[in-house]
Each structure stands twice: as C-alpha cells, then as structure tokens.
Backbone:
C-alpha cells in the first residue's frame, strides 16, 4: 500500500526549482570539451560554437522530452486508472516507433524534405492507434487490469518489433544505420530544428493536460462515477489519448525509444505528494525534465569519451524500478 | 417529479426488465427490494440515464433523463453506485470533496462542506487518512459522504445502490434516518436495500422487483403482508404491524427439506 504522500506540493516544487540550476549547469558542462564561462561568450571561439550548436539544443531537448514523457505517463496512468501504465510498456512508444520507422524507410524523398514534420506526424498517428487499441481491449469494469494491459502491451510491442525488423530487412545500408541509432534512443544528433518541433508539441500537450487535472481525479473514482459527476468520459478519453499520443509521438520521432520515464517519474511524485493530478501533472513534467537531463548526463559520462544511448540509461534505471514496484505490490495484495 | 416507464430492457438476448411503470412525486423515500438478479441495479441504471430502455422512457422534471446535459444532470441527480473502483491513495477529505464538482464551489467551500459531511457519517477525524487504508464499511461511508456532497439547490433525485453495504448496525440506521430527512425536505430518494425490515422502518414507498418485473409497489398498507413478501424472497416470512411499527420474522427451520 502506497502512503498518501506527506510532502506539500509547493515544497516539492521549491525543491525541484532549487535543484534545477545544478542540473542545468551539469548538462551544459558535461562533454568532451570542458567549457569556461568566459569562453562561451567569445563569438569566434570553438567553445561558443559547442555551447550554442550542441550543448544548449541538447539541454532544451532533454528538458522538453522529459517533461512530455513525465506528464503523458501521469495522464495515461490516470486514464487507465492504473499506476503501472507507461507509454513504453503498453506499446504507445512502439506503435509510434513503427510508424516513424515505416516513414523513414518507405518515405524516401518525403523524409529528406519534410522530415521535421512527417516523422512526428506519423509517430503521432502510430501512437494514437496503439493507445486506442490497448485501451479498448484492456478496459474492464474496474478500469484497466494490470494483467490485460501488460499482455496487450506485450502483443503490441511484439507486433511493432516484428514490423520494424521487417522494415530494417528491406532498407538500404544508410537508412538501416539511421534506424538502428534512432531506435536506441538519444538526443545527441539533433539540433535546433528538433527543439522547435518539441516546443510546438509541448505547448498544447502540457497546457491541455495540466488543465485536465481535476477531471483526471474524478476519473480515478471510476468511469461511471465520473460520469455521474458530470464528466463527459468518452470525450475526455479521446482528448487524453490524442494529447498523450501527440506528446509521446513527438518524443519518439525526435529521440527514439526512451522508456520508463513515464513510469518512474509520476510514481516518485505520487509517493511524495499523493495522487492529486492537479499537482501531479505539472510536477511530473518538471521532475521528468530534470530526470531525463540527468540521465543524459549519465549517458555522456558512463563510458566517456563514447556515449551510452539515452534509452539504455533510462531502462537501466527504470527496469529495476518497475520490478521493485511489482514486488512491492505483490506483498501488499 | 420522476416518471419511469420501462416497457422492455434487453441485454444479450435476455430480458432484464419488463413492464415497469413508476411515477414518483417530488419528495419521498422509495426503496427497491427484491432477490439477487431481480434487476434492481439495472433499474437504477436506467433511471440514472446510464442505460436506455429498448422500449420506454425515463423523465426527470420535464426532460428525458438521457437528454439532460451531463453537468446539469449531475446537479439534479446524485447516485451512489454499488462498486467503488477508486484505487489511488487519496486523503479521505479529497475523495468527499470530489463530490462537490458539479456545484462549482470554491476550494474553501468544498473543504467545509466535505468536513461537514464526514461529520454526518461520523468520520470527522478521518479527513487526512489514506482512503485505501480504510475498512470496507468506512470506505462505504466515505463514498456516501461524497455522493451527499453532490446535493445542492437544484437536486431533485438521489439514487443509492445498496448504500448500507459493510456498515455496522448503528451506521445503517444513521444513514437511513438521514436519507429519510432528506426525503422529507423535498428530495426524491430511491435506494436498493436487502433488508425489508429496515426498508419498512424508514421508507414511505416499497418497490418490489422480481425476475425483472414489478411485483408490487406502495406503502406498508399494500405490500407489508406475508403473502407478498414471502413470494418476493421465496422464503416463509411472518410480517406484522404493531402500533404502526413493522415487524418481521423468518421461519427457516426446514428450508432445504422440501
């Protein structure tokens, strides 16, 4: 049984805001080249270029992607009324990934010209289809059961994985390399264009989901119960599926498979402040941003000078975390 | 004014309700009685507009219940369902506060109101407790407090599906007494109960349902007799009224013998 959370949401907010300068500084500092503050502003130096073209966009990407993964994880858990739901476990990321790989391999000149739009868009569509599928099949009277949800997730992940394998088989050497690196998950090879893509998605997704906090609380009472309180449950589900898939789809399109952030982050916030979605959603976004940025720092230093794929790092943290949650639940039931 | 006409309601080939006509005036306490599977919950579901009869209609005020805007309906009608699937560790006070949602109150007002209703359910010191750690009966009282928090100026109808589940005897009576008072103040209360004696003590109308059909309906003078109640439950029952107070005895000596 989880405790109800004893920390005041404002206290957690202040703690996270106080920690964030340190995280941001770490992220900007970590890399092959150590940057001196005075060098950054010298417009002709290499430090200036590294800062502006590599470190800063990468930081923006980890912040935005982390915020999106944190908030969509929290929203999906509320919609499924199940704290174990996570975009990567239930197949949303895989669905988005399959659609993006399909576009990458089959899209040809379309990707070369409009990659920044076409990839997120196809990932979004794949994400919507996967979410809707898992939700429709897994939904029972008492919400979505863990077992069904995870089983459907396994199926969707397997279908997506075989689809991706088939696509890899048919792709040429260059595309294959692109796909492989992209699938491992990472934000190191992206520039400002990817940042703007994520900004464009993050604004409506974050605002849209933050505004649903109260309604999501009511949904946790049960779907019938929420409806009796005046919530138009069907429309609410549609909105949640669209916004979550949009958020996850954009992250997948830009950074590949970055798993478990949507599971670990909302769970930690819930442990600290309780399950009230009015505070959980914004704080999950904030912690998600800091968490993914830190994970990206770890990815850079772990096997320096080489880099670990970001998705591998989050899975290394998230996998054991997920296991401990299952063990914890087994004891309490 | 609630007008219920369920000529037929069928689900996957089985007729669950048939030929039910009820006209319930503004204020009053109706209790639906009947054996398991009689269609009691289904009837409440149809009255609440969460299901639609194949033939028939449910009218609240002057409008079909299914055509009232969800938000407006939530202000006119509150309902306690039989199940409470909440499985997230909210503090008890927050659970009750959620009931205020359709009323559009400020945060301070909902807190006061929720605390008040926890008082009514005799759980005032439970406000900060984790809902998931409560006992079954306590959870039930919290959920009932939540549903009562939904009642406001526009409320006409309160539906309750087995509101006493898990409650100790004191709180069963406390709850029924409170519902009775609400009904006297002009609210139409319709509850599904399993104890005919409790129902007879507090309700002013009994609705007897069996096999999806209306077996009898009315005050004690029409339904409180051995024949009607024994037939309802397929159980030999001896009922009586002494000084207007209902009594009930069960003779179960030889239930399996016959």
Residues:
């Amino acid at each position: 049984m989880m405790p109800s959370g004893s920390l005041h949401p404002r206290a957690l907010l202040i703690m996270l805001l106080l920690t964030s300068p340190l995280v941001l500084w770490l992220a900007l500092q970590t890399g092959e080249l150590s940057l001196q503050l005075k060098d950054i502003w010298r417009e002709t130096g290499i430090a200036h270029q590294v800062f502006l073209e590599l470190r800063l966009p990468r930081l923006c990407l980890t912040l935005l992607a982390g915020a999106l993964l944190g908030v969509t994880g929290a929203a999906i858990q509320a919609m499924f009324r199940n704290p174990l739901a996570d975009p990567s476990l239930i197949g949303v990321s895989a669905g988005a990934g399959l659609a993006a790989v399909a576009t990458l391999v089959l899209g040809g000149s379309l990707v070369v010209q409009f990659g920044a739009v076409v990839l997120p868009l196809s990932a979004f569509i794949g994400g919507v289809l996967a979410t809707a599928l898992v939700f429709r099949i897994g939904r029972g009277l008492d919400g979505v059961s863990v077992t069904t949800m995870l089983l459907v997730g396994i199926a969707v992940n397997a279908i997506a994985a075989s689809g991706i394998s088939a696509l890899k088989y048919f792709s040429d050497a260059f595309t294959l390399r692109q796909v492989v690196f992209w699938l491992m998950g990472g934000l190191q090879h992206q520039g400002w264009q990817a940042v703007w893509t994520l900004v464009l998605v993050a604004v409506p997704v974050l605002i849209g989901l933050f505004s649903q906090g109260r309604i999501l609380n009511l949904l946790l009472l049960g779907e019938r119960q929420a409806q009796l309180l005046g919530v138009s449950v069907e429309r609410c589900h549609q909105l949640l599926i669209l916004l979550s898939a949009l958020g996850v789809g954009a992250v997948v399109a830009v950074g590949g498979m970055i798993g478990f952030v949507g599971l670990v982050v909302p769970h930690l916030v819930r442990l600290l402040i309780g399950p009230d979605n009015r505070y959980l959603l914004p704080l999950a976004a904030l912690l998600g941003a800091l968490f993914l940025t830190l994970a990206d720092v770890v990815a850079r230093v772990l096997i320096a000078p080489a880099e670990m794929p970001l998705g591998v790092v989050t899975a290394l943290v998230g996998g054991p975390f997920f296991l401990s949650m299952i063990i914890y639940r087994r004891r309490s039931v | 004014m609630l007008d219920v006409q369920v000529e037929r309601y069928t689900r996957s080939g089985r007729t669950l309700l048939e030929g039910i006509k009820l006209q319930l005036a503004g204020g009053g306490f109706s209790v639906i009685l009947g054996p398991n599977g009689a269609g009691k919950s289904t009837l409440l579901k149809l009255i609440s507009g969460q299901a639609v009869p194949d033939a028939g209609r449910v009218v609240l005020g002057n409008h079909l219940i299914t055509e009232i805007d969800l938000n407006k309906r939530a202000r006119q009608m509150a309902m306690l369902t039989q199940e409470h699937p909440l499985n997230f560790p909210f503090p008890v006070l927050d659970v009750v506060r959620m009931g205020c949602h359709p009323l559009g109150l400020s945060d301070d007002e909902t807190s006061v109101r929720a605390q008040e209703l926890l008082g009514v359910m005799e759980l005032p010191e439970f406000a900060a407790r984790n809902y998931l750690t409560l006992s079954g009966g306590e959870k039930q009282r919290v959920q009932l407090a939540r549903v009562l928090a939904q009642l406001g100026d526009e409320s006409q109808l309160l539906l309750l599906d087995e509101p006493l589940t898990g409650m100790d005897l004191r709180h069963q009576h406390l709850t029924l007494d409170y519902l009775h008072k609400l009904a006297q103040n002009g609210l139409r209360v319709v509850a599904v109960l399993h104890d005919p004696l409790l129902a007879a003590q507090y309700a002013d109308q009994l609705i007897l349902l069996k096999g999806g059909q209306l077996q009898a309906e009315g005050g004690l003078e029409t339904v409180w007799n051995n024949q009607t109640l024994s037939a309802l439950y397929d159980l030999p029952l001896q009922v009586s009224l002494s000084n207007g107070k209902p009594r009930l005895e069960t003779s179960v000596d030889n239930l399996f013998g016959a």
The radius of gyration of chain A is 20 Å. DSSP finds 14 helices and two strands in chain A.
